[in-house]
Amino acid sequence: MGQQHELQEGTFHITTNARGRVPWLTLPGVPELIILNLHWTKILYEAKVYAFCVLPNHFHMVIRIPEGRSMSRFVQSFKSNSARDIGEYLKNLPSGEPGLAACRTLFTSWQKGFHTHYLEQSFYNALNYVHYNAFRHHLVEDPLDWPWSSLVRTEILDGFEC
Question: Most exposed: 22, 43, 63, 70, by fewest CB within 10 Å?
Fold first, then answer.
């Protein structure tokens, strides 16, 4: 049986981890696939994406799920489709290039379940948390230097009402 969440509609900060916290999410080409899958899942579920950040071993997003849709199904769809696409991509990497073959062994797919926080008053705090996450993990000195955050990659973001 899947993970149970009481609230399914509204605005959420969601965090999902790599299985075993193995740092495969930022392997060459993988962040682009994660962001592309987020974009297509957003369209499929008529959701809004306000922020995201791809980190080596976990992923954050701030999304709004419309009435009549399911946040759990959104996340399940995103994770299963992105895992399939990433697995295919890594399987088809050229085996002769140094370092690329090792990428295949790091991919562990997503951890079961995810963490969610329903946002009411803390919407802007969640946006800041997601946008500055790479900086807090000491991956960059300036949050604008992290290429896999919606602070830099704004193309799939939606506007939001105050």
Answer: 43
DSSP letters spanning the chain: -PPP-S--SEEEEEEEEBGGG-S-TTSTTHHHHHHHHHHHHHHHTT-EEEEEEE-SSEEEEEEEEPTT--HHHHHHHHHHHHHHHHHHHHHTS-TTSTTHHHHHHH---BPSS-EEEE-STTHHHHHHHHHTHHHHTTS-SSGGG-TTBTTT--TT------
Question: Global pTM?
Answer: 0.85
**Closest CA relative to residue 78, chosen from 34, 132, 13:** 34
Is pLDDT at 159 greater than 80 in this prediction?
no
The 10-17 sheet, strands edge to edge? 48-54, 58-65, 10-17, 115-118
Asked if residues 34 and 28 have their Cβ atoms less than 8 Å apart, the reply is no
Mean of the pLDDT values across residues 145-151?
A: 93
Cα distance between the two ends of the chain:
37
